[in-house]
Design goal:
It is a single chain. The chain is an alpha+beta fold and about 475 residues long. The protein has 2 domains: about 250 residues, Aminohydrolase, N-terminal nucleophile (Ntn) domain (Glutamine Phosphoribosylpyrophosphate, subunit 1, domain 1); about 180 residues, Rossmann fold (3-Layer(aba) Sandwich), CATH 3.40.50. About 30% of the residues lie in helices and about 25% in strands. The strands form 6 sheets. A 7-stranded antiparallel beta sheet has the order 3-2-4-1-10-9-11. It has a 6-stranded antiparallel beta sheet with strand order 5-6-7-8-12-13, covered by helices on one side. Strand 15 and strand 16 form a beta hairpin. Helix 9 crosses helix 10. The longest helix has 15 residues. The C terminus is likely disordered. The structure holds adenosine monophosphate (AMP). Adenosine monophosphate binds next to helix 12.
Length: about 475
């Protein structure tokens, strides 16, 4: 999980990129960076560990002066937390100019392609997918004499997995996406009001459309799966590339990861979340409305799911838990003790809110069960009479190989315990998940366009030897180890 941004031919491009990245900071807080083309045509970059406001400050924005720029925010994963893995990557070509590249998504065949390139003498500076994509394009361009667009097209066929990518080369900017469209990727324009494709100048790119409001840009459309866009000064936007393959948009982006004010995959994220809540409420015959009922999200990720649920039930929507916004993600902390501590730092109950209440506590997902176990206890000791946990996604039973950071199958609580055991472990009065079958109604006529592999093991590119939907052993293969 990462975020990318690109700006083509606009004054103060690095500042605009920094603003987009700030708006999509939720996609990555470990490190960030930007690269810009200066007046002399040189591509220069800066990256560092930390948040956008710290790393891409005014001094850096002034230093990276130029009218075209790209940037990246990186998601923290346990281990390999090093500035060499921060992006953009600058790649020097034998012919002289430098190429800069930033990408979001994970590749399944990274190892295989890296080994191949290393045998050809290519030297890597990081173990990052974006660098691999850049070096592969550079090789086809320099060694085989392909144009950059043909090199990208060749690479798009070879890479298996997710990539939403921006690439600067000479005075051009390229934006391209994997043929399945796993990760979101949108295009906007700073000045264009009318219909149709605008001129290249003033075109902007972001992982999510919430990045456009902050710079006053208008959302034009998504970069299409398989598409390669070439932007060149004085030229109309050129769209080449491949016919899309079967779409595999990540459904978890809609459920949890993306910001609710973004729109992609043909959906408004907040509306999908509200529909999920309404769908769960409709199936929840055991919960009856009453003065003592309150529907409450785990803020902020579940706000819209809870809102949809409460509205469908005609019940009170209550923000009984407050979230400290200065606490980072607890999810990726390396040890269980630090994850537990993080949850306590992050949430606090309102005083005198819970006594006597029946609470429907809504969260977007259960992965290891860390947060909810703590939260249920917190709500119970704050006085709640009943706590009914509702989860806005199906059980997470498989890792993601396309860019969402998920623990191994063994760590996922749904693989280690039965429903009743999980409910008891959380200390809840009842527990229900969304079901995979519910996606049919939630994404009418488009269910097949979404990747739901973490919920049903239906991986389009399972790594070799990995148990999939068709050959998975039973969920009870892993012994409870808590
Ligand atoms: P857990 O406490 O391990 O059950 O994690 C579940 C919580 O972490 C959910 O409430 C989500 O908001 C959040 N979450 C789920 N998946 C991820 C992820 N891949 N990265 C970061 N946070 C996540």
């Amino acid at each position: 999980m990462c975020g990318i941004a690109g700006v083509f031919e606009a004054e103060g491009a690095t500042g605009l990129v920094a603003s987009i990245l700030f708006a999509i900071q939720h996609r990555g807080q470990e490190s960030c960076g930007a690269a810009a083309r200066d007046a002399g045509g040189r591509i220069v970059g800066h990256k560092g560990m930390g948040l956008v406001k710290q790393v891409l400050d005014e001094e850096v924005q002034n230093r990276l002066a130029g009218t075209t720029a790209i940037g990246h925010v990186r998601y923290p994963t346990a281990g390999c937390s090093d500035v060499v893995n921060a992006q953009p990557h600058l790649i020097e070509l034998a012919e002289g100019p430098v190429m800069a590249i930033s990408s979001n998504g994970d590749l399944i065949n990274y190892g295989e392609i890296r080994t191949r390139l290393e045998r050809e003498g290519v030297v890597f500076k990081s173990d990052n997918d974006a660098e691999l994509i850049g070096r592969l394009i550079a090789m086809y361009h320099v060694r085989d004499g392909l144009t950059i667009e043909s090199a990208i097209a060749q690479v798009q066929v070879e890479l298996k997995g997710a990539f939403s990518t921006v690439l600067m080369y000479r005075d051009r900017l390229y934006a391209f996406r994997d043929p399945h469209g796993f990760r979101p990727f949108v295009m906007g324009h700073l000045n264009h009001e009318g219909e149709g494709e605008p001129p290249s100048e003033g075109t902007v790119f972001s992982s999510e459309s919430c990045g456009f409001g902050i710079i006053g840009a208008r959302l034009l459309r998504e970069v299409r799966p398989g598409e390669i866009l070439r932007l060149e000064r004085g030229q109309p936007l050129l769209s080449v590339g491949h016919a899309p393959l079967e779409p595999r948009h990540c459904v978890f982006e809609l459920i949890y990861f993306s910001r609710p004010d973004s729109s992609h995959f043909g959906e408004n994220v907040y509306q999908t979340r509200q529909r999920i809540g309404a769908c769960m409420a409709a199936k929840d015959e055991t919960i009856h409305n009453g003065d003592d009922l309150v529907v409450m999200p785990v803020p902020d990720s579940s706000n819209f799911i809870a809102h949809g649920y409460a509205k469908a039930k005609g019940a009170e929507f209550g923000m009984g838990l407050l979230r400290n916004h200065y606490v980072g993600r607890t999810f990726i902390k390396p040890t269980q003790a630090s994850r537990d501590e993080g949850v306590k730092q992050k949430f606090n109950p309102l005083p005198d809110f819970f006594p006597g209440k029946r609470v429907v506590l809504i969260d977007d997902s259960i992965v290891r069960g860390t947060s909810l176990r703590k939260l249920v206890r917190m709500v119970r000791s704050a006085g709640a009479r009943e706590i009914h946990v509702r989860i806005g996604s199906p059980k997470v039973i498989g890792p993601c190989f396309y860019g969402i950071d998920t623990p191994t199958r063994e760590e996922l609580i749904a693989n280690r315990m039965s429903e009743a055991e999980i409910c008891a472990y959380l200390g809840a009065d009842s527990l229900r998940w969304l079901e995979v079958a519910d996606f049919e109604g939630l994404l009418p006529g488009r269910r097949q366009d979404f990747c739901t592999a973490c919920f049903d093991l239906d991986y389009i590119y399972p790594p070799e030897g990995f148990a999939t939907k068709t050959n998975a052993p039973s969920l009870r293969e892993f012994q409870p180890a808590l």
